[in-house]
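Worked Example 4.2. Read the sequence first, then its structure tokens.
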Amino acid sequence: MFHKCKNKLFCANAFIFIICFCCVTAFANAKPLNPLRKLKEVTLKNGMHLLMLPRHSAPIIAGGWVVNVGSANEHKGITGMSHMFEHVMFKGSETIGTKDYNKEKGINAEVASLRKQRQLVGDGITQERLSSAIKKKQEELDKLYKKSEYFNIYAQHGGDRINAYTTRDHTAYFLTLPANKLELFMWMESDRLINPVFREFYTERDAVLAERKERMNKSPFIHASYQFEDKYWAGTPFSWPVIGTRNDIGGYTLAAARRYLQHYTPKNITLILVGDFDVDQAVTLANKYFSSFKRASDNSDNTGSVDQSDFRVKPVVGSYDIVAPASVTLRYPTDKIGGESYVPLQVLSYMLNSPVGELKQQLQLSNLASSAQSYNNVNRYAGYFSVYAEAYNNNDITKIENKIIDILQDYKHNVSQDRLQLAKTNLLYNYYSHLRSNYSILQYLLRYASYDNGMNYLKSYPDMIEAVSVADVKRAAQVFFSDDQSRMIVTKKSNDGGV
């Protein structure tokens, strides 16, 4: 006979755990094959890399390319330029996006001259006259533009999910399209890499400023996070947000963007295809369309070079009184991507976050925190392990902080073999779940292709997870969970008085 559960939250979590346990146990016994073992790698004569994973289950291809340049490769004055390229690289080329490129080029030269004159003159009346002249020339240019033609061409041929993203490490561009449109993809992507035209540059600059402002206004927590990152990563290129600082974005020039294009070199780019295609045909098409892609890198402004020794951080405390739930984040510096403790810390994070993990059991079920989550964040140059907890019913933040510290310190000496195995199985389940579709596989490859030895690392990731032992988890906790952690503390402020 079943009895009514008195603690509904506990029973719900217990039910979720049972379901998860059954699923991952079934998964563990299935021993799935890793499709990435069939990955083909080719380097073209110009140094551009090509990754190909044929999968003939459906007549679809997920394609994209990744550039090994992100916000960490910038410097003050052009912060956010990698993200700016997300906007301008979709504006077409000398062929796509224009009715008459030669005429457009001539007017752009006139606009550049007028802008330069306006910068040099101090007379307000003359500046106003030049601004009026620039506006008229811009109206002429608008009539020559075939706006959104890049997107429209793909849409007419079945292209979908056209997008891009930027991280501290890289910038990626991607889409899906029918298998019989592979040559269209090769032509379109080579064309915008070889002959890009940054149309409506200053309009897009304003759009990025508006995007940044919207983020800041939407969440006071994001604003506080930007301030904390600046403090935590002081003196490193991680100190500014990926989107850039407001002053730097407002100061972008077309000339600066063209200089930044020098980092979009063949040797710095990996083209990736996943789906229904023939490998030999793909290589032939890549050689046909990308063989003329040659761009020398002139690193005279030091953009792109990163001193990895810069990423040593000292413990900091950031306290913010904002209109947001009270919370605390503890952060510990760790390995960069590929470090020997990366996978053990991934497993440890899964142990903390599971339904039977300490964050759920000791913080949430005890009504100390309304939510809690750990993160193992790694990049090319540095990494950190963090735990975030949001106070329940205005509970004392210090009490929550001390409980988190006790939990992490306990991992130095006590690690359950059963829970370790469950976390490892969950990690493997998550890994293989992301290898079910062309698009999700592409996203994995876009990320890891930008790292040294990234493909071998991604292929061997399941083996590394399975090899993690109790001793490995304890060792990682002992090495990284020091007493000198950084803290971001948010105290709740009423709406009266603003932010």
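Now turn to a second chain, presented in exactly the same format:
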Amino acid sequence: MLRDEPLARADVLFTVETALPHGRVAAVLGRMRRLGLDTLLATKRSRARDVVLSIIVERVIHPCSKLATSRLWSTTTLGESLGVTDADVDELYVARDWLLARQPAIEQKLAARHLADGASRSTTSGGAPHAAWRGARRAGGRPGMLTQTQLD
């Protein structure tokens, strides 16, 4: 770039051929990563983990069937972001089976994370979880912030 030379406008130099929505994908995928969901599923990146993450993100953005889920990956940046654009519905079922086989390990990681956060007493005695929610709301607190008197 030389001094005092005018720069060409971007629309003259570049042509937009395709523009895929990315905002919701980035928001949901970013939140899942900050929560550690990707490493909760498996510590090492794999095709199955990426397919499962893609299923979850797509279901949050567009709740739909598994067949529609795999077809919608090409309408956003999700498929490209996780490298699963070419996945078909059969691969979604394989990933679901992979997730089911990993369920005990995932539950152990969740329990360890829960106890490490110092939340060893998080269950209510009797009643459904929504009853605890209502009890906390009536007491002016937030859900999950129940005191001993609220539990008794």
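Notes for the reader: Residues 52 and 95 are 6 Å apart (CA to CA). The chain is about 60% helix and 0% strand.
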